[in-house]
TrEMBL record:
Superkingdom field: Bacteria
Name of this protein: YbaK/EbsC family protein
Annotated Pfam families: tRNA_edit (PF04073)
Signal peptide extent: none
Every YbaK/aminoacyl-tRNA synthetase-associated domain range: 52-170
Amino acid sequence: MPAPIGDFDEAPPATECLDLLAPPVAAVLRAWPGPVPVERVRYVDTDPANADTAVFGEVYGVPPEQSANCVVVAGKRGQDVTLAGCVVLAHTRADVNGLVRRHLGARKASFAAMDTAVGETGMEYGGISPIGLPDDWPLLIDAAVTSTPYVVVGSGRRRGKLLVPGEALAALPGAVVLEGLGG
């Protein structure tokens, strides 16, 4: 099956490749919550050495406007810490100290430590996906991501990526679409 974006030899439905995904990502795809048919979520096998966004785009022909990064943010207020996923297009940066901090009701917000992000998500660093994040986390998604016909996101592992209709991400558990999240 041809890929809707990028230079990939094949892009089968991700549901045919569940064993190649991180367990939390596979679990969400098995019980797909959204109005977009799960068959539209595709999997592409990629070299883990090319997982970082800039290299990935160059090697696989995916412009930054069609690649979405998912980062884990820690919002702190006193002793309370709220973890959240933030999804922005690769040519932008998440407004962590402004919009994210305010949305989480935090006094301070920063990127979560790598061991925290990996441990709490059950995913590999460099492959964290908005699909499969803990259900009780806020999932903040830039509106530009949801209006993109297809975006590349992580598969939960450094090897392989998911090609997802942007609108499908808005239906994930905890998703909140925010204008201007990626600046």
